[in-house]
Design goal:
411 residues; Methylamine Dehydrogenase, Chain H; globular; 4 helices; 28 strands; 11% helix; mainly beta
């Protein structure tokens, strides 16, 4: 009997609680919905002078410079614009930023582009116009699995491991004939197969294959392609001898760096801005390093990236630490220095890093505790972390300055 009474009292108590909650009306339901809705997090950043941020829900945010409409807004000169969502028709799975141009790879394998188009970066001929601030698909591209943007050209890797390229391309990628003013529709790149990713600049590029080999092309007067020799004429896509089991590759304006599966970092090319990381810098008329050589002091690397302006390298180590070298005029190495190149890898003081991204004159990192960090050029530093000059060491990003206001919750 005592058990039955206890059960009855519990039932009445729960019923009373339900009535009380119901009496609170829609407000409690709206609050409960808001609490259960997780805020999207930043999963990728791509930057040049402007910044693109891809969120965990597949949306893309744009902020910063917008002189060619690369933020998907009507162009404005010498203005840092606040963050707004980019109007894309589906979830983005990758973003890329060239100088004054933005690209996004969507989950359906298409590529959308907006910004400057005079050099063919949008994959279409704008018929007299120089830019387009409305995102639109690059015609003829589907099944894209990886995307890369440079200053005046772009490349896409397809599911079958072949590569397409468009923009201001060197003649070694166009069949031996320079196309003026640009290649407006993506074309196949001969000599590249089984490719996983590509990195490229105006003069030199590299493709990393799925089995860890590297192919390079372009200007090679100072050994920039890494073939163990120099040449007066640009070279077509050619496999680099001696490099095997490569897992990551990056390049600056004159040098290149690759990470092998065993953790070693290999560097080659010219040594402007201290890009070889060997403790010295070189003038433009000095000989380069045409044969890849191991970078001293780093044997546990997992990834390497270069700034989109091609002036600094940063490597991620297995323990989550970052080290960088090269140009640091704006503090973009995050090592407490600015105003001169840093020719020796320097430690960037941060908690263990989960991922990182390099812009033109600034850099970003996400630490394993979920915090976002910034360092580098003053105009971005002022807007993102409240600094009054170049940010020479990492500082936490004020998220309300990186993300637009949250959309209101519909009851």
């Amino acid at each position: 009997m005592r058990g039955a009474v206890s059960s009855l009292l519990r039932s009445l108590a729960f019923a009373g609680l339900a009535v009380a909650l119901g009496a609170l009306g829609p407000s409690i339901r709206a609050q409960t919905t808001a609490m259960s809705t997780s805020t999207p997090t930043v999963v990728e950043i791509a930057a040049s002078l402007h910044v693109l941020a891809r969120l965990s829900d597949g949306t893309v945010i744009g902020l910063g410079e917008n002189r060619s409409g690369q933020l998907a807004r009507p162009p404005l000169i010498n203005r840092w614009l606040r963050p707004e969502r980019i109007p894309l028709p589906a979830r983005a799975v990758q973003i890329a930023a060239g100088e004054d141009v933005s690209l996004a790879r969507l989950e359906d394998g298409t590529v959308w582009a907006w910004g400057r188009g005079v050099d063919g970066m949008l994959g279409v001929n704008l018929a007299g116009a120089t830019a387009r601030h409305t995102p639109a698909p690059v015609p003829g591209l589907s099944g894209v699995v990886s995307l890369a943007a440079a200053t005046t050209s772009a490349m896409a890797v397809l599911e079958d491991g072949t590569v397409r390229a468009w923009g201001d391309l060197p003649k070694v990628l166009t069949g031996g004939q320079k196309v003026n003013p640009a290649v407006f529709a993506p074309i196949p790149v001969r000599g590249l197969r089984n490719v996983a990713t590509v990195v490229t600049t105006a003069g030199v590029g590299f493709a990393l294959t799925k089995d860890g080999r590297v192919f390079g092309w372009g200007v090679n007067t100072l050994g920039q392609v890494g073939l163990g020799r120099t040449s007066d004429e640009p070279v077509p896509p050619t496999e680099l001898p001696g490099l095997r089991d490569i897992v990551s590759i990056a390049r600056t304006g004159g040098g290149a760096a690759a990470v092998a599966r065993d953790g070693r970092v290999w560097v080659w090319g010219d040594n402007q801005q201290g890009g070889l990381g060997n403790g010295v810098t070189a003038d433009t008329n000095e000989p380069g390093q045409p044969t890849p050589q191991p970078l001293e002091g780093v044997t546990d690397a997992v990834q390497v990236k270069a700034g989109t302006y091609g002036r600094h390298f940063i490597v991620l180590r297995r323990n989550g630490a970052l080290v960088g070298w090269g140009n640091s005029d704006w503090g973009q190495l995050g090592a407490g220095i600015s105003g001169f190149p840093q020719p020796t890898p320097m430690v960037i003081k941060l908690p263990p890093v989960d991922d990182y991204w390099l812009g033109g004159n600034f850099s970003f990192a996400r630490t394993k505790d979920g915090e976002l960090w910034f360092w580098g050029e003053a105009s971005a530093a002022r807007r993102l972390v409240g600094a009054t000059g170049n940010q020479k060491v990492p500082a936490r990003i004020l998220l309300d300055r990186l993300l637009p206001p949250a959309a209101p919750i519909t009851p």
